Amino acid sequence: MLNKANGSNTTFLQLKDGRRLCYSEYGALDGYPVLYNHGFPGSRLEAQLLDTAAKNVGARLVAVDRPGYGGSDYLPNRKIGDWPGDIARLMEHLGLNQFAVLGVSGGGPYAVACAQTLSAYMTALGLVCALGSMDEVGSENGMGLIAARMIDLMRRSPRMTRWLYANVIGPFMRRYPEAVLAILAGKAPQADKQVLKEPQTRGICIRSAAEAFHHGGRGPAWDLFLYTQPSGTELSAITVDTLLWHGAEDRTVPVAMGYHYAEQIPNCAVEIIPREGHFSLTVRWAETILGALMRTAKYNSEAKP
């Protein structure tokens, strides 16, 4: 069952278990498909940051809300490894049997899960400032104080922290999405501060953050919990060609996480960009990132039987 929201770039696909999966498309709608995995706490609207760049390089961005975010229904007790199943159903519905996958920030673990499960269909994996596992104490070192404290609290008292995030923090952030930027920016470097002052970029980030809490805070709260648990993904088993970018000055997702992915994933091309932060890398390097991803994906697409 397909349901198109009236007058908007928002579509709902009803899954076999009755849940609705919400997605939007950006960029070149007749271009090469790229599944966009949004950050935390974000939504499909975040992909608007790459809309112009995607049009320029011929990328069709399919941006999907994870369960409990935006327009997608909540799924109790989900795991990161459940996500590829939803994506497989969506891509089947769209008639796409080959596609690239891009994971930005908190979308990184979900993109990696797709690479492990959907490798027969994937032609390239892109990771941009990708969040790594935070199941070990100290893995949050280098992040902003508020984010680090929340992660530590989630590890120590997950049930209380999920309740707090779902019932207090989530509703607050939906009403005041500007606060999300303040928390995520943390000890933001100058590059991030400059980018977040740009009206268009700031507007997209604020709308995406507000949409993240459309259904309340349960979805983001569960995501935060999952980030502090072992993901179940075996990085060394990934066979998809991977391209990774990380800002050397990133203080939202420490660059050490990028290095960890690079060391563990075979066939991973890495670029650590000097003088760029978390938000600035995604915005300023969007066309470079998508262009490289397109070249790799198309080359592998032609090579696949």
Which bin fits the share of residues in helices? Answer: 40-55%
- CATH class descriptor name: Alpha Beta
Percentage of β-strand residues: 15-25%
Number of helices: 12
Q: What is the count of β-strands? A: 9
Content-based structural category: alpha/beta
Roughly how many Å apart are the termini?
31 Å
Could you spell the SSE succession in H and E letters?
A: EEEEHEHEHEHHHHHHEHEHH
Radius of gyration (CA) equals 18 Å
Biggest sheet architecture:
9 strands, mixed
Average pLDDT level:
92
* Count of domains: 1
How do the strands line up in the largest sheet? Answer: 1-2-3-5-4-6-7-8-9
Q: So, CATH architecture? A: 3-Layer(aba) Sandwich
Tell me the name of the CATH homologous superfamily.
Alpha/Beta hydrolase fold, catalytic domain
> Which stretches are low in confidence, meaning pLDDT under 50 for 5 or more residues running?
1-7
Q: What best-fitting shape do the alpha-carbon axes yield? A: globular
Instruction: Kindly report the CATH topology.
Output: Rossmann fold
Structure write-up:
It is a single chain. The chain has a nine-stranded mixed sheet, sandwiched between helices. It contains twelve helices and nine strands. The longest helix has 18 residues, at 158-175. It has one domain: Rossmann fold, CATH 3.40.50. By secondary structure, the protein is of the alpha/beta class.
Summarize the structure.
The chain has 305 residues and is α/β, with parallel strands linked by helices.
